[in-house]
Amino acid sequence: MYEILRKEDLTDITKLFEVNAPLVARNAEPGQFVIVRIDEKGERIPLTIADYDKEKGTVTIVVQEVGFTSAMLNSLREGQSIVDFAGPLGRPAPLPKEGSVVLLGGGFGVAPIYPVAKELRNRGVKVTSIIGARRENLVIMEKEMQSVSDKLYVCTDDGSTGFKGFVTQKLEELVAGGEKFDEAIAIGPMPMMRATAKTTKPMELKTWVSVDPIMVDGTGMCGACRVTVAGEVKFGCVDGPFFDAHDVDFEEAHRRNLMYRREEEHIMTVCRRGGDSA
To answer: N or C: which end of the chain has fewer CB within 10 A?
Structure first.
């Protein structure tokens, strides 16, 4: 059992959990993820590691409520435990040892971009971070990102704080103004990462994205997390989650992620009513 040591409300639907998981923390690297199961009958869900402390033996995850299991996880309190917390899984983020990197975090994607920024900063890489959300009250971890970035830009779709527009539009503005980057790393919703790939390709800017396909076991056995990269089938859990953004078939990945939308909506409706899903 993995005890929740700290819980923080980042937004109404986004919660931060610091979990006691010494073995996971000892081996964790930026960009990896864990597979979480709340109880013995629960669904297995992948969550990117948002931070870790090898000395304390803790791992931080950030959970945005998008379905039944994430809602159940967000309802847990400090002192309660998670039955399974498997990891670290996946390959670490492919980070350079020098140069200038621009990081783009969209919505809940700001959380997993944080350990990437922290590691880059430790390596002496110049870090420019662009984080965004639909509106001000959905922006998360701004102070944390400020602490590990040489420059930080906040974007909101409605202009309620920072730059009015998408993170990709801010990137275009910076490049047009003379900023030069050696690489870009984007983490966030699939449409945001797809837009980043389209934006950076004409710039000939090497870009990495953390793809989040449907995933079951996290070890490459089930094949649910298939994604096409440069015309080849890859598995998000063992070959990724990071891939060259310009090689990812985002259209296919987006379609696959919508495969069970009807079932997800059904179970959420049933649970809100307190009924039986049968």
So the answer is: C
